[in-house]
Specification:
The chain is mainly beta and 202 residues long. It contains three helices and 22 strands. It starts with 9 loop residues before the first helix and ends in a 6-residue tail after the last strand.
Length: 202
């Protein structure tokens, strides 16, 4: 599952990860971000493993837990909460009240407001409307391990924490839910209030 098929030039930014499975990338994202911070230039303000580009705008009461990289021209709305390893590429917009955990969000993407993105890789120029969720854990199932559907085959991740891989230029409608293990190709459209559950247990 080459992530470059979903996200253009992903391998240019994450060259060591381009052939890794997305759930392995998000599970180890904290270590990856810590290594990337070591190679950032002086256009970033770096403090305690949190790197924020000097052009980024961060509104009041934003919580950013280490490690994190906030890229060029990013905007983070008031009361957003970043947990356990977040990477924002250029010109990403995170609206007020969003929570992001262990996720990569690529350039030009907008996460509107009151969204949750967990253990996910979100491509370029994607729009999440208000209240839409990329869930990362099966609270309701006895078996918490997450399976994904790719190329008409079910793949066992052997992980109990993985959200979504969302291809470039996709649109996620307001209050939609991407169930754990959702894989969306480029230009996907998820309707408002839609539930995406690609692998349903027997």
């Amino acid at each position: 599952m080459l992530i470059d098929h979903f996200i253009e030039d992903f391998s240019k930014t994450f060259s060591d990860l381009s052939t890794s499975e997305p759930w392995n990338i998000t599970n180890d994202l904290k270590n990856t971000i810590e290594k990337m911070i070591l190679n950032l230039g002086d256009d970033y303000i770096i403090q305690d493993n949190i790197a924020i580009h000097k052009s980024a705008t961060i509104e009041n009461n934003v919580t950013i837990k280490k490690p994190a990289i906030i890229g060029e021209n990013c905007y983070i709305g008031a009361n957003a909460y970043f947990r356990e390893g977040v990477y924002l590429d250029q010109s990403v917009k995170i609206g007020p009240g969003c929570e992001i955990k262990n996720s990569i969000i690529c350039s030009g993407t907008a996460i509107a407001h009151f969204n949750y993105i967990g253990n996910s890789i979100i491509g370029r120029n994607i729009n999440f409307e208000a209240g839409s969720i990329a869930a990362n854990h099966y609270n309701e199932r006895a078996n918490k391990k997450i399976s994904v559907l790719y190329d008409n085959k079910i793949i066992e991740t052997n992980s109990d924490k993985f959200g979504s891989l969302v291809g470039d230029n996709s649109r996620i409608g307001a209050n939609a839910v991407l169930s754990p293990g959702t894989i969306l190709v480029k230009n996907s459209i998820v309707k408002r209030l839609e539930l995406v559950e690609q692998v349903v247990p027997e």
